[in-house]
Amino acid sequence: MVAFNLITGFLGSGKTTLLSNLLNELSAQKRIAVIQNEFAPSGIDGKELQQKNDDFKLVEINNGSVFCVCQLNNFVQNMKTLIEDYQPEIIFLEASGLADPISVIELLQTDILKDIVTLDKIISLVDAPNFFKGLKGLVRFKHQIMVADKVIINKMDLADDNVESIKSELKTLNPYAEIISTSYGKVDWNSLTIDQGNKSEAAQQYIGQESEGRPEIKACVLRTHEKISEVGLKLFVSELMKSCPRVKGYLNLNDGRIMSVHTVYDKVDFVILENYAGPSELIAFGDNLMVTDLRKMFKKLTENLTL
Question: Radius of gyration of the chain from Cα atoms?
Answer without folding.
Answer: 19
